[in-house]
Structures are given as structure tokens and as C-alpha cells.
Amino acid sequence: MSVKSSFFMPLVLLAVMAGCGPTGQCQETGGDYEKFKETIILRFKDRVPRQWGETVPGVKTKLNSTKKVIALTLDACGSKNDGYDSRLMDYLIRENIPATLFINARWIDKYPREFKVLATNSLFEIENHGFAHKPCSVNGRSIYGINGTSSVGEVVDEIEKGARKIASLTGRKPLYYRSGTAYYDEVAVEVAAEMGYQIAGFSILGDAGASYSQEQVRNALLRAEPGDVIICHMNHPESETAEGIIEAVGELKKRGFIFVRLSDSGMK
Ligand SMILES: [Zn+2]
């Protein structure tokens, strides 16, 4: 057993002790949560990050497969102006296209009914897009004018409270985490790994925060190669994301690509 994995095991046990049942149901907080958090804070207290970005060491950006598979990942951020892109989601359901949904806790509160429908559809896996949609920093870095988490403790809260909210509603603890803005420092990425989560980056920027035109979305997706992970958004029905995806998915299927969820192939 390596040093890293011998550290890792007790943390998983601590997570179980911290209010998570054997099938993954967790309380949002409480139990031994504070102890769990303190252990991680202690472990990382002397670490100073040197990098800040979307692809710092430890962020996984591709599928772990040599087959002609690609993954569509869709973020739901829970910001003030968020909606629900039913046109996009109805299309995926109708056409039987699997996807991985990164959902923020605030979005769940805003769209509880839609969340339940998506969470109970086996086409989709629900993953963690954080509790308050903060960039993932151990020392308060910011990006696009959005303040990141300011400490290791805040990183733990942002990740774990989001994960526990999802687990408490679905009975399944998320495997993957993607921060608000998808920015990280490399120490925060290690914190997430110690907590048992993989950081899901991406290899194709599909809609640039739902700002792309239909043609830009389509062109971005049509650059896909085997193993690519596409990031788009399902929270902006006013955008042209849905049209762009619908156009590209048909063409990608013609080219022989198979859509998978992240956990179907795993990430590297
Ligand atoms: Zn987001």
C-alpha cells in the first residue's frame, strides 16, 4: 500500500462515519462532519499552491478508453438567471443519449421537480457542481470576477456539502466534482482526491458558458475525437446550446461515435 493510499483509506472511513450510510446516503452535515473536515485541514495546512487554471495537475480531461466513445457533460450552475433547458434534455431523453450532469446545490433548490426527473432517469448520472458554485482555491483566488473558496476548510465545505445534498436526494454519492468556473489550484485538487472525488475537467469547450452561437457549438462538438469530454450547459434555455448540440449529435452518431457517461469509461 502506498503512502497515498494509506492516507486515503481512513478518510473514506471518516466519510462513512460522518453521516454517510453504506449505500451512499449522507446527511448534508452533522455527525462527525467537523472532525472529518479538521483532519483534512490539518493534512494540508502547510501547502502553498503554485498553479491556477482549468488543467492543473490532477484534473482529468479525457475518457479512459481507446474506443470511439465521447462524453457529453452538462453543467447546471444555479446562478440567479438560471433556467432549465427542457428542449435539450427532452431531446437527449427522446434520442436515448446518455450524459453526465454536474449540478450545483442551488440549482436543485430552484428546480427540485426537474432534478428528481433527471436523477431517476438511468440515462443520466448526477455529479457534483459544488454547494455555492465557487472556483476551487485554498487561498481565495478568483476568476471571471467570482471569488473562490478561501481555505482548505472552505474547499471541503464547497465539495462535501454539494456531494451530500445530491447523495441525500438520490441515494448515490457523486464520484466526480467540477467546481464553479472549472478553475482549481493544484492543492485543492489534491484535497478533493483525498476526500475520494475525481476532478472532471474537459477536452472540448462546447458552449463557453452558454455564450456560443448554434454554429459555434456545432463546430466545437464536431472536432470530437475518441475519448473526448465535452462541457456544455443545461441551465440556459435562452441560449443556442440546445440547437448546436442537437445538430452535432446527429452527425457524430453518423460518424460512429457512441455517447457514454463519465463513469461508464472512467477518466484519465
Ligand atoms: Zn457552473
List low-pLDDT spans.
1-19, 21-25
Task: Fill in the CATH topology.
Answer: TIM Barrel
Helicity level:
25-40%
Alpha carbon gap, first and last residue = 21 Å
CATH level 1 class label: Alpha Beta
Note the beta-strand portion: 15-25%
Number of domains: 1
Name the helix and strand elements from N-terminus to C-terminus, one letter apiece. HHEEEHEHHEEEHEEHEEHEHEH
The profile of the biggest β sheet is: 6 strands, parallel
Structure annotation, total helices: 10
- What Rg, in angstroms, do the CA atoms define? 18 Å
Find the CATH superfamily: Glycoside hydrolase/deacetylase
| CATH architecture label | Alpha-Beta Barrel
Question: What would you call the structural class?
Answer: alpha/beta
What's the average pLDDT? Answer: 92
Bound molecules: zinc ion
What general outline do the C-alpha atoms trace?
A: globular
Number of strands: 13
